[in-house]
Design brief:
Blueprint: E1 3-11, E2 21-22, E3 28-29, H1 32-45, E4 49-54, H2 62-66, H3 70-79, E5 83-85, H4 95-104, E6 109-110, E7 114-116, E8 121-122, E9 127-132, E10 135-143, H5 146-151, E11 161-163, H6 166-176, E12 184-190, H7 193-202, E13 211-213, E14 225-227, E15 230-233, E16 241-250, E17 255-265, H8 275-292, E18 295-298, E19 303-304, H9 313-325, E20 330-334, E21 342-343, E22 346-348, H10 349-355, E23 362-368, H11 369-379, E24 392-394, E25 398-403, E26 408-414, E27 417-418, E28 424-430, H12 431-434, H13 437-441, E29 455-458, H14 461-470, E30 483-485
Helix pairs in contact: 3-8, 9-14
Length: about 475
């Protein structure tokens, strides 16, 4: 047996997490400066090292959003990944902008299952073969259908985008390379851990896929998940950790003969600042700090958003903010729009932008009590509890008691009164969600237009939040339960 060692370092869902945080004992945690130091050190210590990123480079920080991802690409060019696959947030600034961004990248970006329907043309290279120490490693990139929800907002281009079944695409690529001496086949995914499990189970062993390195679900692993003989690896999210796979490759059979994997913390003094990266990040940080580091409010306490598929104190606070400023009866706030896990007590302007970076418009729609029940019940289908669909934070006044085992709404009230089918409510919803009403809430735009047509009542979400918090004199603690799940 001829055996060679390879080390694959991997990140996913960086979301513009460029700056370090301070721990209680004074150490720095995460940030691209410390991360790049660790990667560079491993590249010096080991012979065959590859670094991959499984999607969602963009969104989550002022440095990213202020420059619409161009700053992110410059920072990642210093980080120097060997291959990156697309995530759903890579299309947040538009398909055309993403294609421009790719030209700025000094690293390959791959995706096999997103294409133009008009002529079945892929937008990116579907795969890449990297060589190290005479070994050939085939990387194939696939992403989630969530990308389609965002592209629908681009009326012309978005209507021409679709994604195909990832297993079929992987199979065709693997079969096309069977005559080559491929030593290792890796699928880089951005579809979430549950979908990764399903994908691994669907892959034909004859295709020779050795490994899935994924993202999207922000999954923290203590050890790899193995399905159908294929290890699945995730590295949580952000830059506070990195996945490290050390594998022995049997080059005579083109298979992994053994491997070890660990999730490595990125923190001082284990990692040291990288001067080159510090220079790049500091240039952007100084510019954004000067613009966005002004105090907006003192909330008197900290509000948190630890998960996306449950009611949270921060989610309720933000839903109330939109409801109050925009004079709505109910605000259904997309839980995934909240991109930080905490806010307060002191709030500066950049906190608002990083907590809620999706600065789209707000629509007012009029819905009947019956339609509202349909929307809420659909939101609470089983997919919601495993983060495979959209979830909403409810504003003050609306109360829903839901029996999960019976899949039924047991109590449905507004300001203490039972909601009747013919009641009418002014409901706020974000533009992204308005574009996906049927997929997310099981009603159509035509159905909610029966009383009044949908109307844009705010063009920038951050303006509404700034207005609300600027007049925030006392803590409006949203303590009451609005969504009770049995």
């Amino acid at each position: 047996m001829s055996s060679k060692k390879i080390v694959i370092l991997h990140s996913n869902d960086l979301h513009g997490d460029f700056l370090p945080r301070q721990s209680a004992d004074g150490h720095c945690i995460g940030g691209v400066s410390l991360l790049s130091d660790y990667i560079n050190r491993v590249r010096k210590e080991e012979k065959n090292v590859l670094y991959t990123i499984s999607g969602d480079m963009f969104r989550g920080s002022i440095i990213d959003s202020e420059y619409r991802g161009i700053s992110t690409i410059e920072i990642l060019n210093v980080l120097a990944p060997d291959v990156v696959t697309l995530g759903n947030h890579e299309v947040d600034y538009g398909i055309a902008h993403l294609l421009f961004i790719e030209k700025c990248a000094a690293f390959p970006i791959i995706n096999a299952n997103m294409y133009l329907t008009i002529n079945s043309t892929r937008l990116f290279h579907s795969h890449i073969v990297l060589e190290t120490d005479e070994m050939k490693i085939l990387f194939i990139g696939v992403l989630t259908e969530d990308v389609l929800a965002q592209t629908k907002r681009e009326r012309l281009v978005g209507s021409l985008i679709d994604v195909t079944d990832e297993a079929a695409e992987i199979g065709s690529i693997c079969l096309a390379h069977q005559k080559e001496d491929i030593d290792l086949t890796v699928v880089l995914t951005h579809i979430g851990i549950d979908a990764d499990r399903s994908l691994a189970a669907a892959l034909d062993p004859a295709w020779g896929v050795d490994l899935i390195i994924g993202g999207h679900s922000h999954t923290v692993m203590s050890s790899p998940v193995c399905i159908n003989g294929i290890p699945i690896l995730h590295a949580a999210h952000g830059t506070a950790q990195i996945g490290r796979l050390e594998a022995e490759i049997d080059t005579s059979t083109n298979r992994m003969s053994s491997f070890t994997w660990s999730l490595i913390p990125i923190a001082s003094p284990h990692c040291q600042p990288n001067p080159q990266m510090e220079t790049v990040v500091e240039r952007y940080r100084v510019q954004t700090d000067a613009k966005y580091n002004r105090v907006i409010a003192d909330l008197g306490q900290q509000y948190t958003h630890p998960v996306r598929n449950a009611e949270t104190s921060l989610g309720k606070l933000l839903a109330d903010a939109f409801c109050e400023v925009l004079d709505l009866d109910i605000m259904l706030l997309g839980s995934g729009s909240i991109r930080t896990s905490e806010l307060g007590p002191t709030v500066i302007y950049r906190d608002i932008l990083e907590t809620f970076p999706f600065n789209d418009e707000i629509f007012r729609i009029y819905v009947s009590g019956q339609q509202l029940r349909t929307m809420i019940r659909y939101m609470l289908r089983e997919e919601a509890f495993v983060s495979r669909t959209e979830f909403y934070q409810l504003s003050r006044g609306l109360f829903v008691e839901y029996d999960r085992s019976r899949q039924s709404i047991e109590s449905f009230t507004y300001k203490g009164k039972s909601i009747c089918d013919d009641d009418c409510f002014r409901v706020g919803i974000q533009g992204y969600h308005m574009s996906n009403l049927k997929a997310f809430l099981n009603v159509t735009e035509e159905e909610v237009s029966s009383v009044y047509p949908p109307k844009i009542i705010a063009t920038r979400c951050t303006d509404i939040l700034e207005m609300y918090f600027s007049s925030y004199e006392t803590a409006h603690t949203p303590e009451e339960t609005r969504l009770l799940i049995h």
